[in-house]
Amino acid sequence: MAALLYLHGFNSSPNSIKATQLKHHVQQHRPDLTFICPQLAATPATAWAQIAALCDGMASPFGVVGSSLGGFWSTRVAQLYGVRAVVINPAVNPHLLLQDYLGEQQNPYTHEHYLLTGQHMAELAALRVPEPANPERIWLLQQQEDEVLDYREALDYYRFARVCIQKGGDHSFVGFEHYCAQVIRFLGI
């Protein structure tokens, strides 16, 4: 059975709005797919180890979708596992973006407390894909009024990928539920 792997963003969870919307779409319209959305560890090296273990264990075809920091992870999965990815308002340079969040953190979904450190930024920098080698396997969904990320970074980084840029919106990607069927078709699963 083919699988759809959804990777949530920084301080998020499988209970995020987009993860829930995609899960419900799969349940209603594609029950032949296995929907996988793990609670990722708060720290980068541990989160990547989780993701890699999941991908290594996949016996069937799969595609990956990720939002924000999950988009960063999804790009790495596409690069290393040769699968298609949909990245939603992705964090292109999280090692720079998250500098403002160093220190004590609490995940609002899980209530987990942890310390975000400079070492974690170094881990993110080391895990970054310098430039996607097969950008045709990636679809960027980006809204210009993202209040967290500068959308132009993603447009530059994913310039050879399939791109859907929208005026307005925000970091949550307003209206994502209308893209679920197209996302699955793009992933080819």
UniProtKB/TrEMBL annotation:
This is Esterase. It holds the Pfam family UPF0227. SUPFAM superfamilies: alpha/beta-Hydrolases.
